[in-house]
Design goal:
Blueprint: H1 3-11, E1 12-17, E2 20-23, H2 29-51, H3 58-77, H4 84-90, H5 94-107, H6 109-112, E3 128-129, H7 135-144, H8 160-173, E4 186-187
Antiparallel strand pairs: 1-2, 3-4
Helix pairs in contact: 4-8, 5-8, 7-8
Bound molecules: heme C.
Heme C binds near residues 122, 146, 151 and 185.
Length: about 200
């Protein structure tokens, strides 16, 4: 048995079928390296995709687009005064009421509940109010707070236009009559009607 045959022997597997033997031919090193590389790469890629600034996610793109759109609409709103006419007419604008609702959901529900029916704070859906006698008072209370901060002041925590849109949204909650919390304060006169064609 020459040298070549001897080393072949080591590489030939012990079994044999119909005279056919199996040569133990290991996968080459480069193949293992590629395999190893893909494993390492997948782990690295996974964490990069979560955190890295190089990856821009669909959701980030959507948020940026929404922000840009809001900024555009905000610009289109023009000068927004917290006066009676503005607050009343905004109540007719479904798009801006949706926007007001989103601010309400973000900041106000912990004390006034998701439907505005009250909790720590009073019910905002009935005809009774503690600090409000006219629709513009809502804006004043939101901006300045009330009762020594029991109702926090939001004036420096949101854009002035947000405060106006939110005020109008809060006014629109009136009449929903959630029975979550009993009425507090006095029954006040209805909000002024929206102007014709406005
Ligand atoms: C930490 C709890 C808390 C949060 C958060 C809060 N409020 Fe209030 N809110 C109160 C309390 C308490 C009062 C009642 C104050 C009083 O007794 O004079 C109140 C009163 C009000 C009133 C006047 C109601 C009335 O009957 O006079 C309005 C309007 C109002 N909140 C709107 C909002 C809006 C809009 C937000 C979100 C930006 C908000 N509140 C967030 C606790 C809160």
């Amino acid at each position: 048995m020459d040298k070549q045959n001897q080393s072949d022997k080591l590489l030939i597997k012990g079994h044999q079928y119909d005279g056919i033997q199996e040569f133990d031919n290991p996968t080459p090193l480069w193949w293992h390296l590629i395999w190893l590389f893909t494993m390492v790469f997948s782990v690295v890629y996974f964490f990069l995709s979560l955190e890295s600034p190089w990856f821009v996610h669909q959701t980030d793109r959507l948020a940026a687009a929404q922000l840009a759109e809001t900024a555009r609409l905000f610009g289109a709103l023009g000068d927004l005064q917290a006066d009676e006419a503005t607050l009343v007419s905004l109540m007719q604008d479904e798009k801006w009421m949706d926007f007001g609702a989103s601010i309400f959901q973000m900041h106000c529900t912990s004390c006034h509940a998701a439907d505005g029916g009250g909790g720590i704070g009073p019910n905002l859906t009935d005809d009774n109010y503690i600090n409000v006698t006219s629709i513009t008072d809502i804006h004043t209370i939101i901006v300045d707070g009330a009762n020594n901060g029991a109702m926090p002041a939001w004036g420096n925590r949101m854009h002035p236009k947000e405060a106006v849109l939110l005020s109008s949204y809060v006014a629109s909650l009136r009449g929903n009559n959630s029975n979550r919390k009993a009425p507090e304060g006095e029954i006040i006169a209805p909000w002024p009607a929206a102007e014709e064609g406005g």
